[in-house]
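Kindly go through the following sequence and its backbone structure tokens. Advise at your convenience whether the structure tokens fit the sequence:

___
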Amino acid sequence: MRLTSSDGAWVELRPVRYQSGRGRPQADGGFDFDGNWVVIDGHVRTAEGVEYSFRDPCLLTDDLREISGWLKAVADRRVPPTPWPADEASLLAFTEPNIAFSVHADVGRDIRLRVHLSLEAGPPSRGSDRPGLYEYFVDLSLTPDGLGTAAEAWDMEIAAFPRR
């Protein structure tokens, strides 16, 4: 899935494989936490033209589906903008804090998203220059149709990663 902004910035996220080869059946029939991590291949381009990539097992299978539902809700304008700075509870955030999402603004025909990228998903930097959790984000301006198309593409990509 690629979220492409009208200013040339984009964030591309692709699930590429489970972190571990096979899920393990749970005696109680519950969730195999370790067997459901998915490696995400990410590529980022800022409006200023800075590009970088990352690959990390930072989302669970359930997170993949949560992203899809959230993008559809944003496209339907059911997610209100979040003032920044915001606490983690105001973001679509996950167990591993590498990727998070928030709505910056809903202006006219465009919706402005923040894709927060931290830790292994954050921009390459040195030492103490590294931003804190959720502080670095790429601001993307998209139409509701563009968000809907991205959600559909994400749904097709995540179909290969059912909960194990």
